[in-house]
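Thread title: Can someone regenerate the structure for this chain?

I was given the following input by a collaborator and told the matching structure tokens would be attached. They weren't. Posting the sequence so someone can regenerate them.
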Amino acid sequence: DVNAFSLAPGEKKAVRISAASGAGLKEGVVTFTEKNLGDITYGLQALVTEAGKFFEDFEAEQAPAGWIFGNPWKLGAVPESLAANGATQSAESSYASSKGMLITPKLRFADDERIYFSATKKDNTSSLLTVYTSTDRIDWTPVMAVNARPEEGQAIFGQDKPTGTGYGTYEFSIFSAPMPEGECYVAFDAGGVLLDNVYGGEKVAVDHDLYVTALSTPKDGVGSVNARYISSITVRNLLTEEEND
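Best answer:
Regenerated them for you:
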């Protein structure tokens, strides 16, 4: 509780609110009571991290090691109206009509553990974000969905901010998805979405992590006897160590 205080015209006052102890998602409400305006209530969320757990805030100049940014995902600037706690960048999937997967490094989860992330839709178009898990980055299992227009069992993106419409008028909300026990990759499949502060599990050390990004073959894909046939493959090294031989 905060003691009563007065505000002169144009004056600002910071009210400090503390989260309960322990790591994980904290949620609550704060209510301001004014004798003429009555009660004004705001919902609050906070994510308290634990040392040793996987955490990515996308504040680096390049894509973080081990991540796969499928088209149209990229690192993008957070709109000024949404920036908080020094955040300047997030992972951005540009268009709701063009979905793609953003894939984490291999992670290990304990029983009943969850992965947490902050997300918001980019503009006033409908957006759907689906979280998947996979042990091999080939076969994917959906575990939750966040929708601008939620159906049964789906979470909902944050509501409009008090002012403005269109780009940058939607608040980040913190979501969590249940994870299977053991090692897996996590994918965020979405278009027209900003994603930030992914937290949970432990990163698994791997000796090699090569990912095929492109395959090029002759136009008709058919070879013939005594004729040169050339195809090429593009491979990306997802780790920070150099691959030799």
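Confidence is low (pLDDT under 50) at residues 162-166.
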